[in-house]
Design goal:
277 residues; alpha/beta; 3-stranded antiparallel beta sheet; 10 helices; 9 strands; globular; binds adenosine monophosphate
Length: 277
């Protein structure tokens, strides 16, 4: 496994002719969710490159940039044991050198849902992912449905900017009890960890209601809200949206996705699910 830390080394990296390059961008502190993306890439591509970079520009001023969990040694050992070909680990100084001025934003989609409480977040995500794509030059990029709005926004960015990269959306990997795996789960104390189960519970209750014939999104949202509030979650938002446009839906269709963001103490978690099988 080759670990690359400079722009020059990344730009001068030559892949074997005809190789399909699969790219998995991450912020490190890897868990099975990340590793499922690596596995998907390895199944479909001839070379897999993973980036580990905690991108400061996607964190708001009062967010957890400095406390974001990091364990590079463990991450590299895991990726090496999986047979990953390359890891790109840039620093802030090379990604955002003094005088950096260029930003990429997908309008509208970036300002709704998570964008309401994190107004600059997706601008930071789009900018760093575009920079990484330019450096890595992948054919395919593997991303989790866990961050569903991010996935939708990045698909739009690739389409609008005519980038020849295919996004492969991979399913959410969960703990045995249903909690979606997240690097931020480590912040939860044991009480909050138990409380946080209401996210997956609310989503599965919503799926059950739809399965039993409920088509009114407001009723499904109300039931899920009750579940979250009864567990003591501090709700940021809960919505039923069209999975392509992210616009609110009144009636549930095959394209309806429920998206939730909620706080457990200071920890903000997100989760989502397709409502109709
Ligand atoms: P992050 O390190 O949180 O920026 O995540 C890097 C990638 O891993 C993103 O594409 C996430 O959507 C994906 N990811 C994070 N958690 C999960 C999960 N539980 N299941 C599947 N993919 C995930």
């Amino acid at each position: 496994m080759q670990v690359i830390t400079s722009i020059d080394a990344m730009q001068s990296l030559r892949y074997p002719q005809g190789a399909q390059i699969g790219f998995v961008p991450t912020m490190g502190y890897l868990h099975e969710g990340h590793l499922s993306l690596v596995e998907a890439s390895q199944e479909e591509c001839s070379k897999t490159i993973v980036s580990i970079y905690v991108n400061p520009s996607q964190f708001g001023p009062n967010e957890d940039l400095t406390s974001y969990p990091r364990d590079t040694e463990r991450d590299l050992a895991l990726l090496e044991s999986m047979g990953v070909n390359y890891v790109f680990m840039p620093t802030d100084a090379i990604m955002y050198p003094c005088g950096y001025k260029t930003w990429v934003e997908v309008l509208e989609l970036s300002k709704i849902l998570c964008g309401e409480s994190r107004p600059e977040h997706f601008k930071g995500v789009c900018t760093i992912v575009l920079k990484l794509i330019n450096l890595v030059r992948p054919n395919r990029m593997y991303m989790g449905e866990k961050d569903f709005q991010q996935l939708t926004i990045l698909k739009k960015m690739l389409q609008d900017l005519n980038l020849p990269v295919e996004i492969i959306a991979c399913p959410i990997v969960r703990e045995q009890d249903g909690l979606a795996k997240s690097s931020r789960n480590v912040y939860l104390n044991s009480f909050q960890r138990q409380q946080a189960l209401c996210l997956s519970l609310a989503l599965s209750q919503a799926q059950d209601a739809v399965q039993s014939g409920e088509v009114d999104a407001s009723i499904v949202i109300q039931k899920a809200t009750d579940t979250l509030q009864n567990a003591g979650a501090m709700l940021d938002y809960i919505r039923v949206v069209d999975c392509e446009t992210l616009t609110d839906q009144i009636l549930i269709t095959k394209h309806s996705r429920m998206l939730i963001a909620a706080y457990f103490g200071k920890t903000r978690l997100i989760d989502n699910a397709l409502l109709k099988a």
